[in-house]
Amino acid sequence: MKVITFGEIMxxxxxxxxxxxxxxxxxxxxxxxxxxxxxxxxxNYGVDAAFVTKLPKHAIGQAAVxxxxxxxxxxxxxxxxxxxxxxxxxxxxxxxxxxxxIYDRAHxxxxxxxxxxxxxxxxxxxxxxxHFTGITPALSKTAADxxxxxVKAAKDLGVTVSCxxxxxxxxxxxEEAKETMTTLAPYIDVLIANExxxxxxxxxxxxxxxxxxxxxxHDGYVDVAKQLVDKFGFKVVNITLRESISASDNKxxxxxxxxxxxxxxxxxxxxxxxxxxxxxSFGGGLIYAMLHDYKPQDAIEFAVAASALKHSIEGDYNRVxxxxxxxxxxxxxxxxxxR
Length: 339
Known about the structure:
With 339 residues, the protein is of the alpha/beta class. The strands form three sheets. Strands 1, 4, 9, 10, 11, 12, 13, 14 and 15 form a nine-stranded mixed beta sheet that branches. Helix 1 crosses helix 9 and helix 10 packs across helix 11. The longest helix is centred in the middle third of the chain and has 16 residues. The protein is globular.
């Protein structure tokens, strides 16, 4: 089995720990990005995962390639060219102070890539799964067109397509998101969304739910999943459910909807170290579980456990093994030292 992911990897610049921007004069430099994060998770689980993007030939672009290669991700399909690597600045929140992200990604190499940069028939040779997020088509009109080319090629070749909606209000409007993601919807088999995405992108919402206060209505989300399936024909819909107590403490669970049946995971009480990449780690766990034919309940438990562990890890990437995820999904959340 081989998974292809497509999107943007960025340079992440962040104060150490929970400092505010320039509370001292240091910023830690790492890499991350939605689809790259998924590829790293899958590589950790022993899956052949390739990340596709466009990166400059200069030293920063090469550092991003080297970073992924060092984590076992296939980088052979990365196109080289363009002038810059996108950047995002992250100030991690704590307690009642929210996290803050500032993007500096305009005119990045992937945002200005052209359709002729990517030969999707060659890229998908031997692939069984393709994953992208709603962030990628939000980067530019050309990025949206390339994404459409990719999903059409995947569908023609019988490759399963998954998408994490990942609505980002700093990248596009709800109207722009709805138009583009509605065009892409017929090619998507497995949809991943959070408690806001379905409403912001597709105008479908759950009654009696307030994401600000963390109030969730499970019956309402089953209805949301059903509406998404009925309207767009998705085979599987997954909705991650975050109950936000504060920036430091969340409750975390998810819904898996397949063949008219709803499956809810157990709920985890999270003490957050770094929540960036939490949704991507869910996606990586879900893809792994579905590729290995996990039963629906087991699949959602694996995906949520993988994501729960990610919240304890600094950086975008989820650096855990299948055995660690299975241990937590199986009920061992004690955190006791393993000797």
